[in-house]
Structure formats: structure tokens, C-alpha cells
């Protein structure tokens, strides 16, 4: 029994994330495994369990398996896996599962991403908090006596070869022109999946000369944090692309479900450009199979170039709020072929509506290797506008700051809507901005885009000045 761990500290809206030994330990994970089986009614069913390269992931996987088998589930241990390997296995084997990972967080963190059978996501709306509450009860009071109910079994399975073969069946890279690519795995799981999918570690080689950076699996992240969203974590990759004269660079986050792309000049391609590029390819593929007007999902702060490209290609763009649970739900509801987010999460119908950075990277390689232009020219087509990137301001009264910005634009030819935060867009389509309050931090997040830097930068500066102005206190 334990009264030291409060699971409400580590259970978030979409997954579990905590500091090892403080908000998450093996005893808590065992209780979570038992609650996972009980809440989802998985006694007698298969439950998949894997983990990333963090020092605690193997111990936590075993602890979860103990709790799950105690409550009657038959656990299949997948060993070290990326998050999208779990989604693949959950979809392919039609089984619920978990992967222990804290994605891009520092080494002292670990967490759990959970999936129902068929790679269906589990969030606070679909059972995650019920699992939390029952696990807390088990942690505080002890696991219930199992009685005569048989305990489940434990088996082991390696899904890397099946995962790699499945991805290669979706995008054929065998006939592209030879490409030199630098891949920065950040000591994360991309160091395992890249040689298997893109190299010759598991399957026959492809026309790819891979220059590896930090492929050693090391959850202490000795080289740099495995968070490619931060520009400083891309510097080694950018330098290596230039040093080796590579055609492009790829950077994966810690659990390898997100991928960032660098062109041959060492400059990043925005996730919006990748979304548009992949969307056009996926639309063409399913149209060739007879599907009319396929749906593509994008969140509201991707570039407006995304819906424009989707429409021009004959698809139907559908906008959602930010967040993977919204994207995945909309993917299923709409039967969408593809979905993309500004944060470099890419979702595929053929991948059980789940996100996989590796499959997005393969589409980029196929597009680049199927013609002669360098990636900078190919990518420029998909980035016709100038984006500000996300800028955070620490603001206590986020609603008040937003109201001041709205008042500033009163009487001007703009449109305002409030799907996720507040979006203000020029009536002539020349610019848009979005202000979204963080749910967990005292930040107001600003994103914007314009027809040119000259258009968007003065608006950006004016809005940030309004947001950050000191307000009198009573």
C-alpha cells in the first residue's frame, strides 16, 4: 500500500506523464495495470506492453504486466518499441496496449500512452480518468483478492519486422533516385526504427545512404533533448546535413512518433508544408482507387496553405481543434485519409487513424526521390505564406488580454471565430492570428501567418505588445 503517490499529478488529458520516483513508481504502475484491465473489461483478452529506452521503462513494463495479469489479462511483452509501433501492433493484432514513454520530456520523466484495441485512443473522455481513480484506490488499499479467477499469461513478441514491412507496403521507396539523408534519433527510439524501416537491418536495402546521428538508445539523452520542436535541438542535424552534402535531414522525438524535416540548405520545412505535401499525395492515391473528394483533417493553426492545397487536389479539408484526441476522433468520424498538425503529428487512415512520423518521412522521401528538384525548391511550393511560429506570453488574465486584442481590431475588416481560443483573420485573406490559452500554464499562445513578412510582422508586434502590457491592479 502507498499513500505517497497521487496519480492526479501524472494523469493528463491524453496520457500519463510524471517524474520517476516522485509521481510515478513501479508500485503505482502495477496498480495502473490492474485498473487498465478492470476498467476496459480486458480479463481473458490480450494486452500489449512495451516501452522506450528510458532507464525505468523496462521495470515499469514488468510492473504493469504484473498488475494486468493479476486481473486476468494475457500480456504480450513487445520489448523496446516506438509509440507508433504500439499503434501498429494494437491495430494489426486488434488488442489494447500501452507504451511506457515520456516522449520529448527530460530523462527524469516517464509516462504511459494507452490504446484500446484497434489503436483507438484513450483520453480523459474515454476512460483515462476512470483508470486513474481505480488505480489510486488499488494503490491506497491494495489490489483486490483475485479469488478463483485465473491469472493471465505472459508471452513475448517482436513486432519490428512486421511494423517495418507494413510501412514499406504503404510507400514504395525502391525505385526513387538515390538520396543521402542524415537522421538524428536524439538517442531515442528512432535509433531502432530507422535502420529497420529505411535501412537494411531487417529488410532489403533501399536507395538511401543514411548518416546516423545519436542512434544509441540512451534514455539519459547525453547529446541533446529529444525534442526537435526546439530549434537548438536541430543544430547538430543542420550542421551534419551541410557537412555531408545530404539531400535532407530527419529528426525524431524520443518516442519517434513525430518527425521534423530539414532541407539540403540546413533549413527546416514547416510541419504545415509536410502536411500539405503528404495530403496531396494521399488524395491522389485514393482518387486513383476511385474515392471521390477524400477528407483531410488539419488543426486550426496549420497554414491556410493546407486547406488550399487539399481543395486544389480535389479533397475536402476539415478543420479541428488542436490536440491528437480531436484529430483522431475526427479522422474516424469523417473517414479521413490523412490528418496533420503544426506540431509534426501526422495521422493516416491506413495506419489505424494513428500518428506516425516515420510514414510521413517516407512520403517526403518518395516525393523528393521521385523528381530531380532539391527539397528546398520542392518544399517552397508548399510554403507560400510566412508564419510567426508559436510565441508564448506569460499572462495571468488570459481572457482579459484576448479581449484587449479583439477590441484593437474593432471596426477593421476582419473575421473573428472562437473554435479553439480566438482567431482573427483579415477579410481579404492576407493574414490571420490565433490566441490560445494554455490549460496547464499561465501562457497565452500566439500563432500567426501572413502573405509576407511585411504583412504579418507589424501585426505580430502590435498584438504581442497589447497582450504583454501591464494592467493596473486594485
Key descriptive features of the protein:
alpha/beta; Alpha-D-Glucose-1,6-Bisphosphate, Chain A, domain 3; six-stranded antiparallel beta sheet; 14 helices; 22% strand; 4 domains; seven-stranded mixed beta sheet
Overview of this protein structure:
The chain starts with 15 loop residues before the first strand and ends in a 6-residue tail after the last helix. Helix 1 crosses helix 2, helix 8 (271-288) packs across helix 11 (357-369) and helix 13 (398-408) crosses helix 14. Strand 16 (346-348) and strand 17 (354-355) form a beta hairpin. The protein is α/β, with parallel strands linked by helices and 474 residues long. Helices cover 35% and strands 22% of the residues. The strands form four sheets. Strands 1, 2, 3, 4, 5, 6 and 7 form a seven-stranded mixed β-sheet that branches. The protein has four domains: 7-158, Alpha-D-Glucose-1,6-Bisphosphate, subunit A, domain 3 (Alpha-D-Glucose-1,6-Bisphosphate, Chain A, domain 3, 3-Layer(aba) Sandwich); 162-269, Alpha-D-Glucose-1,6-Bisphosphate, Chain A, domain 3; 271-380, 3-Layer(aba) Sandwich (Alpha-D-Glucose-1,6-Bisphosphate, Chain A, domain 3); 386-468, Alpha-D-phosphohexomutase, C-terminal domain (TATA-Binding Protein), CATH 3.30.310. The model has no long low-confidence stretch (mean pLDDT 95). The chain has helices at residues 26-40, 57-70, 83-93, 128-141, 160-170, 190-197, 235-244, 271-288, 305-312, 324-334, 357-369, 375-380, 398-408, 453-468; strands spanning 16-19, 46-51, 74-80, 96-100, 109-116, 120-121, 154-156, 179-184, 208-213, 248-252, 259-262, 268-269, 295-299, 316-320, 338-340, 346-348, 354-355, 386-387, 391-394, 414-417, 422-426, 431-437, 443-450. The chain has 14 helices and 23 strands.
Amino acid at each position: 500500500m502507498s499513500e505517497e503517490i497521487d496519480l492526479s499529478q501524472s494523469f493528463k488529458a491524453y496520457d500519463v506523464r510524471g517524474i520517476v520516483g516522485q509521481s510515478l513508481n513501479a508500485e503505482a504502475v502495477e496498480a495502473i495495470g490492474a485498473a487498465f484491465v478492470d476498467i476496459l473489461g480486458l480479463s481473458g483478452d490480450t494486452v500489449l506492453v512495451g516501452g522506450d529506452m528510458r532507464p525505468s521503462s523496462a521495470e515499469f513494463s514488468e510492473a504493469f504486466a504484473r498488475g494486468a495479469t493479476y486481473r486476468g489479462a494475457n500480456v504480450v511483452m513487445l520489448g523496446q518499441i516506438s509509440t507508433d509501433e504500439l499503434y501498429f501492433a494494437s491495430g494489426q493484432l486488434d488488442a489494447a496496449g500501452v507504451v511506457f514513454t515520456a516522449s520529448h520530456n527530460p530523462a527524469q520523466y516517464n509516462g504511459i500512452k494507452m490504446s484500446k484495441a484497434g489503436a483507438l485512443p484513450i483520453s480523459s473522455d474515454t476512460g483515462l480518468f476512470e483508470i486513474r481513480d481505480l488505480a489510486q484506490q488499488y494503490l491506497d488499499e491494495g489490489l483486490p483478492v483475485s479469488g478463483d479467477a485465473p491469472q493471465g499469461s505472459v508471452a513475448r513478441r517482436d513486432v519490428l519486422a512486421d511494423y517495418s514491412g507494413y510501412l514499406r507496403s504503404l510507400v514504395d521507396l525502391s525505385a526513387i533516385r538515390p538520396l543521402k539523408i542524415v537522421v538524428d534519433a536524439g538517442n531515442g527510439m528512432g535509433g531502432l526504427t530507422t535502420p529497420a524501416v529505411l535501412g537494411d537491418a531487417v529488410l532489403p536495402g533501399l536507395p538511401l545512404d543514411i548518416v546516423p546521428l545519436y542512434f544509441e538508445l540512451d534514455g539519459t539523452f547525453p547529446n541533446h533533448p529529444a525534442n526537435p520542436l526546439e530549434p537548438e535541438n536541430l543544430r547538430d542535424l543542420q550542421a551534419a546535413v551541410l557537412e555531408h552534402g545530404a539531400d535532407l535531414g530527419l529528426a525524431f522525438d524520443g518516442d519517434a512518433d513525430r518527425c521534423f524535416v530539414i532541407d539540403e540548405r540546413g533549413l527546416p520545412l514547416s510541419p504545415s508544408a509536410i502536411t500539405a505535401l503528404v495530403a496531396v499525395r494521399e488524395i491522389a492515391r485514393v482518387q486513383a482507387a476511385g474515392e471521390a473528394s477524400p477528407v483531410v483533417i488539419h488543426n486550426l493553426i496549420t497554414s491556410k496553405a493546407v486547406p488550399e492545397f487539399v481543395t486544389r487536389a480535389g479533397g475536402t479539408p476539415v478543420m479541428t481543434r488542436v490536440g491528437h484526441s480531436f484529430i483522431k476522433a475526427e479522422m474516424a468520424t469523417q473517414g479521413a485519409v490523412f490528418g496533420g498538425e503544426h506540431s509534426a503529428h501526422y495521422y493516416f487512415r491506413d495506419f489505424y487513424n494513428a500518428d506516425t512520423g516515420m510514414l510521413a518521412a517516407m512520403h517526403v522521401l518518395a516525393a523528393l526521390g521521385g523528381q530531380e528538384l532539391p527539397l528546398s525548391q520542392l518544399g517552397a511550393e508548399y510554403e507560400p505564406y510566412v508564419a510567426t511560429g508559436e510565441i508564448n506570453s506569460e499572462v495571468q488574465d488570459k481572457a482579459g488580454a484576448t479581449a484587449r486584442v479583439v477590441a484593437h481590431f474593432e471596426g477593421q475588416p476582419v473575421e473573428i471565430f472562437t473554435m479553439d481560443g480566438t482567431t482573427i483573420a483579415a477579410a481579404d485573406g492576407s493574414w490571420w492570428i490565433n490566441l490560445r490559452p494554455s490549460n496547464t500554464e499561465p501562457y497565452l499562445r500566439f500563432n500567426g501567418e501572413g502573405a509576407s513578412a511585411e504583412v504579418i510582422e507589424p501585426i505580430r508586434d502590435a498584438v504581442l505588445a497589447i497582450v504583454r502590457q501591464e494592467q493596473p491592479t486594485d
